[in-house]
């Protein structure tokens, strides 16, 4: 790692002071009640802090930086594209990076998904998916089908359409409950990934779908892993059941693969665990390797044709930075690097499998600790669930003292490390997590 000079203490305090008073951070008050930690550089899997410390980033920059930081291949993709053009409007124009990325996504996603709509972020891609479902049903002559069915415990983003399909009870958007569209919620999927399907729960899903079929446009879920709603895993059989219900009642199945896509759960797509194919799929986060904000919403020919033949004549959405060339170029490089298409021999499946092994071994000592409710691992996701909400600042102090950066929330101390972490680095993350659990 290249050396980076630490900032003087007075400069660090000046930065923190201004940040505290003027920079509004996610999910926090203004002014901030706690200081954010200044970062001056990042390389490999480590963050270089302003005070000179280096921390292993156990969060992959909110699950996106699967290759780590300052990667020469991704750097080259951005700088090469920058020399050509940074951006051009996507209305009436197109460009090679976007076309190349669309081709890669069509090749890597299940066969029926052949149409690609580029979005600015994961949240926007879900908004687009919802809009697709509503326009499709309207075009089919079923305008009363304007609601979505989902399960509690889910999280799909912070914009208004997205908030309406997030958990309405335990989610972070309850303040807006009175003004959001009223969607249809089933209970959270019971058990874990390896649990036998519960017949009573399957019956509940079937009853809800049948009772409300005439007003439902689509079913939307995160496949197998519920992310920011609680980091819960559920049996693939439930996903298969939702696919069957969608087919039975003429609904579209939307799968939010923003967190689960590109190998995070041990399969390339979360849907692969169940062998199902959605009508609409959202991808983001790891799409660009954590370099730039970009997402995509893919759909089948049937959905695209239905929308395009309807009264709108097309999908009524068009972000200013849609298909940004810089983001598209680095996304192509990231996907080729991840899948080994660049000829460098990367094996994402082996990397994720090795991380899973170390996470299972390293987090096992947390089982049975006072205050710990559950420990679970799937792919490159490791979770310690506590009995009570954690003190975020206190937990972060413990893990930072162990040379690790994590961002716990609610009752969860969890990690989604970069795939390029060594076994020793993952073990350091688990040691920090167990230490945090012991400190509760």
Automatic annotation (TrEMBL):
Sequence positions that bind substrate: 62, 155, 285, 318, 407
GO MF annotations, alphabetized: adenosylmethionine-8-amino-7-oxononanoate transaminase activity; pyridoxal phosphate binding
Organism encoding this protein: Thermomonospora curvata (strain ATCC 19995 / DSM 43183 / JCM 3096 / KCTC 9072 / NBRC 15933 / NCIMB 10081 / Henssen B9)
Pathway named in the protein's UniProt entry: Cofactor biosynthesis; biotin biosynthesis; 7,8-diaminononanoate from 8-amino-7-oxononanoate (SAM route): step 1/1
UniProt KW NAD keyword: no
Record's keyword terms, sorted: Aminotransferase, Biotin biosynthesis, Cytoplasm, Pyridoxal phosphate, S-adenosyl-L-methionine, Transferase
Assembly information from the UniProt record: Homodimer.
GO CC, alphabetical: cytoplasm
Domain of life per record: Bacteria
One of the protein's GO biological processes: biotin biosynthetic process
Main location: cytoplasm
Primary enzyme class: transferase
Sites where the protein binds pyridoxal 5'-phosphate: 122-123, 256, 319-320
InterPro entries: Aminotrans_3 (IPR005814), Aminotrans_3_PPA_site (IPR049704), BioA (IPR005815), PyrdxlP-dep_Trfase (IPR015424), PyrdxlP-dep_Trfase_major (IPR015421), PyrdxlP-dep_Trfase_small (IPR015422)
Protein known as: Adenosylmethionine-8-amino-7-oxononanoate aminotransferase
Key word RNA-binding present: no
Catalytic activity: (8S)-8-amino-7-oxononanoate + S-adenosyl-L-methionine = S-adenosyl-4-methylsulfanyl-2-oxobutanoate + (7R,8S)-7,8-diammoniononanoate
Gene this chain is encoded by: bioA
Cellular compartments annotated: Cytoplasm
Residues modified to N6-(pyridoxal phosphate)lysine: 285
Enzyme Commission identifier(s): 2.6.1.62
Cofactor: pyridoxal 5'-phosphate
Protein task: Catalyzes the transfer of the alpha-amino group from S-adenosyl-L-methionine (SAM) to 7-keto-8-aminopelargonic acid (KAPA) to form 7,8-diaminopelargonic acid (DAPA). It is the only aminotransferase known to utilize SAM as an amino donor.
């Amino acid at each position: 790692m290249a050396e980076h000079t630490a900032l003087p203490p007075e400069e660090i305090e000046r930065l923190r002071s201004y940040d505290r008073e003027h920079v509004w951070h996610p999910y926090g008050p203004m002014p901030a009640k706690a200081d954010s930690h200044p970062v001056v550089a990042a390389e490999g899997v480590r963050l270089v802090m302003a005070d000179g410390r280096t921390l292993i980033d156990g969060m992959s920059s909110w699950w996106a930086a699967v290759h780590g930081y300052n990667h020469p291949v991704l750097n080259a993709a951005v700088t090469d594209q920058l020399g050509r053009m940074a951006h051009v409007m996507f209305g009436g124009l197109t460009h090679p990076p976007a076309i190349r990325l669309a081709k890669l996504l069509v090749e890597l996603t299940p066969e029926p998904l052949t149409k690609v709509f580029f979005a600015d972020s994961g949240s926007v891609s879900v908004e687009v998916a919802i809009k697709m479902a509503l326009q499709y049903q309207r075009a089919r002559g079923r305008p009363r089908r304007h609601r979505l069915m989902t399960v509690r415990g889910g999280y799909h983003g912070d914009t208004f359409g997205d908030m309406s399909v997030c958990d309405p009870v335990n989610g972070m958007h309850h303040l807006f409950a009175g003004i959001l569209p009223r969607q249809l919620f089933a209970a959270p999927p019971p058990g874990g990934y390896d649990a036998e399907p519960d017949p009573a729960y399957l019956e509940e899903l079937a009853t809800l779908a049948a009772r409300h079929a005439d007003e439902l446009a689509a079913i939307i879920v995160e496949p197998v892993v519920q992310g920011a709603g609680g980091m819960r895993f559920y049996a693939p059989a439930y996903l298969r059941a939702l696919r069957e219900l969608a087919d039975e009642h003429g609904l579209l199945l939307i799968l939010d693969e923003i967190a689960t896509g590109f190998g995070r759960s041990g399969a390339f797509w979360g849907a692969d665990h169940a062998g199902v194919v959605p009508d609409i799929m959202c991808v983001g986060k790891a799409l660009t390797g954590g370099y730039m904000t970009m997402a995509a919403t893919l759909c089948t020919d049937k959905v695209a044709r239905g929308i395009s033949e309807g009264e709108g004549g097309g999908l009524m959405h068009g972000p200013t930075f849609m298909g940004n060339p810089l983001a598209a170029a680095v996304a192509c490089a990231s996907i080729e690097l991840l899948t080994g298409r660049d000829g460098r021999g990367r094996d994402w499946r082996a990397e994720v499998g090795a991380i899973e092994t170390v996470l299972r071994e390293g987090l096992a000592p947390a089982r049975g600790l006072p205050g710990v409710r559950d420990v679970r691992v799937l792919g490159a996701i490791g979770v310690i669930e506590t009995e009570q909400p954690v003190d975020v600042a206190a937990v972060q102090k413990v893990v930072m003292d162990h040379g690790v950066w994590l961002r716990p929330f609610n009752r969860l101390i969890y990690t989604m490390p970069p795939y390029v972490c060594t076994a020793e680095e993952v073990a350091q993350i688990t040691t920090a997590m167990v230490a945090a659990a012991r400190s509760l």
